[in-house]
Amino acid sequence: FRNAKMAADLGELLVPYMPTIRVPRTGDRVYKSECVFSFDSPESEGGLYVCMNTFLGFGREHVERHYRKTGQSVYMHLKRHVKEKATGAAAGAVPRRRNGKVFLDLELNRDFNGEDYEYEDEAKLVIFPDHFEIPLPNIEELPALVTIACDAVLNAPSAYKKQELESWEEEIQVSRHARSLRQLDNGVRIRPSGWKCQKCEMRENLWLNLTDGAVLCGKWFFDGSGGNGHALDHFKETKYPLAVKMETITPDGADVYSFEEEEAVLDPHISEHLSHFGIDMLQIFHYLSLSLPESGMKLKAVFGSGYTGVKNLGNSCYLGTVIQVLFSIPDFQRMYVGNLQRIFDYSPLDPSQDFATQMAKLGHGLLSGLYSKPPMKSELIEQVMKEGHKHQQKGVSPRMLKALVSRGHPEFSSNRQQDAHEFLQHMVNLVERNSAGSENPSDVFRFLVEERVQCCQTRRVRYTQRVDYCIQLPAPIEAATNREELVAYETKRREAEENMQAPPDPVTARIPFTACLQAFTEPENVPDFWSSALQAKSAGVKTSRFSSFPEYLVLQIKKFTFGVDWVPKKLDLAIDVPDFLDLSRLRATGLQTSEEELPDLLPPIVLPEDTRGKGMLNQLLQMSPEIDEAAVMQLAEMGFPLEACRKAVYYTGNMGPEMAFNWIIAHMEEPDFAEPLTLPSEALMDPGPSTSESPMGGTPPGNSPPEESISILTSMGFPRAHSIQALKATNNNLERALDWIFIHPEQQEEESDALSDEADTQPNDNAFSNGNNTHSDSTLSPDRGASGPRVKDGPGRYELFAFISHMGASTMSGHYVCHIKKEGRWVIYNDHKVCLSERPPKDLGYIYFYHRLSSS
Fold first, then answer.
1. CA–CA separation, 510 vs 480, rounded Å?
2. HEC string of 763-818?
3. Residue 611 CB neighbour total at 10 angstroms
4. What is the DSSP letter of 107?
5. Half-sphere exposure of residue 102: CA atoms within 13 angstroms, side-chain side
6. Which of 79, 375, 392, 475 has its CA 20 to 30 A from that of 797?
């Protein structure tokens, strides 16, 4: 009778909330291992509250906020009690659980040794605002719907598991085209990097057709990623059935799609099919032994604010090192941690999908010291009593941020090792994109580069500017101070290889930093230079200087290269990078009085053949130049497409196969690389400069540029109307749009307004161009107008404060650590371990971070 009364009471209590209680459906993510605002978990003192409607998890101090914002009253409270086993307990015993069906899929905290600890799990329903608690399981007393919902939440898989991919793996069948696939012997060889669609500018979601080697963008494929559908269009034209997704190629296989069968398929002969185009799957991820800096030393662990490590999720150290450096910069601290409460209060209903919220969460975790506490005295005594037992630094897990920032990215969403420099660029891009209308902390990295191009024949010059965030320094091996030692090592290595002996110990090339800087500043040849003074191809050289100096300077050493066999290789270098750096002598000077500018003319536009009349075609044929067919055949014998060889010889003025070969190497990535040579017909009709009104220029008037591209440009400080005009004039290509803005800094106000009205009827509320950002006004470059990007110019004197090092054979393997100078001491961050660094290996870094010294 008592149980029946209790069941009736609980049923009546839950009746008002029944419409808000949901059973997780397929695709719902249940966040029952970590709070979306903090790193609280079921093992935390206050446990974790899971909303029974949204299935988001909240720590004790954040659950009230969600209740007030949504009115959702019913939460499941999860608590894990971790206890040390009683003396004499059998090692490896099965952990005791108070309730058998609780937390069946909850990941154990790996900081605890399962042989020394046991776990007791506890769950209950909590009804807000009165905090009425109902212990679980309570099958007999609870309504059936509530029981089903609770059971589903408790047994739900991790929010980060890819259930869809697992189900696909069971259903994918071998393609009927795999065994008899015909591959054209057309000489196509796929480069190891720099891919882009042959028909558009897309560099992601690219597919390699296994018949003819065409690299094209995808659309509507089984992974749901987008594109312009050129791979599908290619199949409709050619009926070549199989394509492989470029970003998924590993030694274990690759994602293959059959257009004819309209589904993802297996290709048992994928290795042979890829090798036809020069791709060696087995060599792509070749590992060498690691050499961790300061390995073998007993380093002193440090704790507290700013000394919290980042857990490695499996090949995620590239993310951890970049995040550690970013949150050592005051601007990032102020933006995300200083505004923590405002960001949390105004977060969307699903904070796990909000960039600012997840950055604030991770920044607070690193800087608060809550997750980096030194051991208590009692623990220290216990450590002495237990030999070999050490207090483990836990660190924070970046799992939620990684899932967000890598979503849709073919590389960062995988579990493979990635390039820390590429991830830094990715993060800066995300910060830019998510800072529209507010302070942009990545302003500290932005600077302007002045590029001076000179026509070698006329000696006339052109000055342009571009935005950049990082300086890439070449590492000239020929400048190594131990060249004799390197030559001797190479001789021994070859001898050992010929005699089938073990190779000698590798020798590190020691290159002076001054040589790297000198190589960066030296003039470089401009491939395929078109002189507007001559209105013809000519030789040109380019030099780069700083138009402005950033507040924080990022230097990347070019340590990585690719072999012709697709094997990524790392150069073994040591560079004496200085603690203090003065780049003042590299400040740009602009056009000099003794220099004469090149005319502001653009190369003639090449029109497709189907847009020309017969008369124009005959005129072009009459003007066909002499082409050295012997040089063409010499290049074609190397395996390059015949039409590409003809263009190379033509554009280098029949100056020999060597010059033509250099042209081919510089233009292999262009979408029209292998298309037939077409002459500049537009030059016959109009010798003047081409504009966006030409048949091939710009975006059609009815098509507005993507809002995302507009936001990226406006976040850099460009006016919205000017950004729209630049994107329209360059077919929505961001890189070309930036160049266009610098070439056309002054536009008629009426024209800009008309373009803005035509492209976007929304009001222009861009805070950057309206000067609402008071934080950076005082540091803006004085010569930057309203149409220029926002830069924090100042003296070019810097001090080193951080560097990221890589150990391993390539960016696709190995391990990253970072060193950061804090409170006058160098600290090494190696995943979750944070220690004082005794001998920071500054000469072995990959990415270096400098902060500007004050003018005083």
1. 5
2. CCCCCCCCCCCCCCHHHECCCCCCCCCCCECCCCEEEEEEEEEEECCCCCCCEEEE
3. 10
4. P
5. 23
6. 475
* 297 band by pLDDT with thresholds 50, 70 and 90: low
Query: What whole-number distance in Å separates Cα of residue 641 and Cα of residue 674?
Result: 6
Please compute the mean of the pLDDT values over residues 509-523 and round it to a whole number. 93
| The overall pTM is greater than 0.85 | no
426 marked as part of a ligand binding site? no
Q: Average the pLDDT over 431-456 and give the result.
A: 90
Beta pairing class for 173-174 and 263-266:
parallel
Catalytic residue among 51, 150, 317, 645: 317
Number of Cβ within a 10 Å radius of residue 124? 17
pLDDT tens digits for 203-249?
777 899 999 999 998 875 444 446 788 999 999 999 999 999 887 77
Q: What is the pLDDT of residue 788?
A: 63
466 phi and psi, to 5 degrees? -145, 155
Instruction: Tell whether residue 35 is among the known ligand binding residues.
Output: no
End-to-end CA distance of the chain: 84
Q: Convert 781-794 to b/e letters by CB count within 10 Å (16 or more is b).
A: beebeebbbbbbbb
Instruction: Provide mean pLDDT across the span 443-456.
Output: 94
Closest alpha carbon to 349 in 599, 73, 56:
56
Residues pairing with 806 in the sheet:
816
Q: 240 Cβ partners below 8 Å, 6+ apart?
A: 209, 210, 211, 212, 214, 234
Q: Which H helix or E strand runs over 207?
A: strand 206-209
Which pLDDT band holds residue 810 (cuts at 50, 70, 90)? Answer: low
CA gap 142, 148 in Å, rounded: 10
Judged against a pLDDT cut of 90, whether residue 389 lies above it is answered with: no
Q: Indicate the helix (H) or strand (E) that contains 63.
A: helix 63-70
Catalytic residue among 426, 815, 832, 851: 815
- Rounded to an integer, what distance in angstroms lies between the CA atom of residue 364 and that of residue 346? 17
Q: Name residue, tokens 């003074």.
A: 533
- Alpha-carbon torsion, ordered 66, 68, 74, 75, to 10 deg: 30
- pLDDT at residue 27 above 80? yes
119 beta partners: 82
- Of all helices (H) and strands (E), which one includes residue 493? helix 483-498
Catalytic (active site) residue 317: yes
With 70 as the cut, is the pLDDT of residue 610 above it? Answer: no
Report which of 38, 57, 60, 45 is spatially closest to residue 366, judged by C-alpha positions: 38
